[in-house]
Amino acid sequence: MDPRVERTRSVVMQTATDLLVEGGPGALTMDAVALRSGVAKTTIYRHWKSRDDLLAAVIETAIPRLPEPDPEADVETSLRAAMRYSVDTLRHTEWARMLPAFIMLSQHETEIRAISERMEWQHNNVLAKLVRQAAEEGLVEGDVDVDEAIAHLQGPLMIAHLANLLPIDDQLADSLVDRFLVAFGPSADEGRRAHDE
Amino acid sequence: MDPRVERTRSVVMQTATDLLVEGGPGALTMDAVALRSGVAKTTIYRHWKSRDDLLAAVIETAIPRLPEPDPEADVETSLRAAMRYSVDTLRHTEWARMLPAFIMLSQHETEIRAISERMEWQHNNVLAKLVRQAAEEGLVEGDVDVDEAIAHLQGPLMIAHLANLLPIDDQLADSLVDRFLVAFGPSADEGRRAHDE
DNA sequence: AACGAACACTACGCTACCGTAGCGTAGTGT
DNA sequence: ACACTACGCTACGGTAGCGTAGTGTTCGTT
């Protein structure tokens, strides 16, 4: 492939990503990208057919994919690894800073919503498998609601990030799994029953 | 007060709210508000000094305030009431549909960020008091991290709403408190220790 | 009845952004 | 060396949004 093409693509993508991260979707304009990247606007349009197309490409590129768990590892280890991975993406990637924009855009832009659904599907797939496996092995209650479990694993992390409520680090990832295993542990029913009376 | 003023204010606010909810911040334009509400643009500018000012007013009006718990009630009842209130605002109010926009705007617009911080402060204040009280009464572990507790109470609800992961209803509110009490209960340490070996 | 405030309407000027056209230049692969 | 393609540059046309001006009208108050 022509190295000029490769260079243009990467420079524009990086610039567009920076603009989105710094100023939100409103800051990602073709003129701004052209000005800051040094790439001519006409050239940008040769690679992306519209501004929305470029925006979608930026998001598509930045979007995290949860890795499949190592089939050798036991469930708890895999669960901890998955949560640490989620924490890492929120700590080290540009994704973290475009997440708010992404959440909003997926509400109103059908193109972005499609990306969002693919991502959620992929994430929930990985996590759901782990939760079911954990249920089978007796680590959590047998009749666990998978979506509820995912909400408890990911929800606190999400709000910690969006509201700056807690520091995002490995310790958080571990404590999330700890809390989850206690809350959804097979002895949880007894705990709740004991509490009710 | 002049009834014309009152009418204009309420009609414009309602129209602006609708536009924000339907199409996000980009849809809330002065021209659109004027057109749909039937109020002349010059009149709108007589009540709000700019488009951003109107947007802020809409958000400020829609923003939910967590009510102070009844001092007569016991902690667990108050906690359940607070969570049911959170659920209700996400189920019945326009706030639910403008939350994504709000999250994004508070990232980049300082005016909105200020509103966001006031809201978080108010919410966390109410919840923090309840969590501390719960700790004192031995309902949850004594050295509980208040912010962590809040994250576990509100996080799953937030993600359930944003990702359409779970139905938002009273049953969810109750199960959130149930899970929370188990995960943060005074016996949680034993649970975790028992699990580790 | 009369005054004043709030309002509607039209028409602006201004800016920012989108997307395109035309032309000349510079780098790539053969 | 050659043709080809990507690229830069400048200049557009078109649209949408913000905020304002001027004029006349309606409504509320006293």
UniProtKB/TrEMBL annotation, chains A, B:
**Record-level Gene Ontology MF annotations:** DNA-binding transcription factor activity; transcription cis-regulatory region binding
- Domain HTH tetR-type, residue spans: 6-66
Keyword DNA-binding found: yes
User: Pfam families recorded for this chain?
Assistant: TetR_C_11, TetR_N
Q: Which SUPFAM superfamilies match?
A: Homeodomain-like (SSF46689), Tetracyclin repressor-like, C-terminal domain (SSF48498)
Keyword Transcription regulation attributed? yes
The record's DNA-binding region positions are 29-48
This protein's UniProt keywords = DNA-binding, Transcription, Transcription regulation
Q: Where do the coiled-coil regions begin and end? A: none
UniProt protein name: Regulatory protein TetR
Its source organism is: Pseudonocardia dioxanivorans (strain ATCC 55486 / DSM 44775 / JCM 13855 / CB1190)
